[in-house]
Specification:
By secondary structure, this protein is an alpha+beta fold. It is globular and about 80 Å long.
Length: 128
Amino acid sequence: MKHEVKVLARMMVLMIVSLGAGRAALAHHSFAMFDKTKFMTVSGTVRKIEWANPHAYLQVQVPGSNGTSTLYAIECSSPNELSRWGWKYNSIKVGDQISVGLYPLRNGQPGGLLFSVTLANGTVFKGN
């Protein structure tokens, strides 16, 4: 009887650990750093594209009114999700002139969560 209790206890521990590991695999970071109550559009030149998991990223150089420019870091969805929305890894290239709709960062830094990208030819790509 003691042996059966030990085996049952080990099985329970294994089951609990397995369930915990599954939850960790489903975890995702919070989007609380983006203010989804605000929306803004910036236009500029693509400086960098990172087509990587878990999220793709864009860096866009946005000219200012005083002759300076600001580099915006923009978080996108996963490459898998972007592909399902019609993106290809080369849909946007470094040097392209684009307009980006985004939810800005709460801390006021230049960047945000991508909503959409509009290319110079008018093509629109969903971003979130």
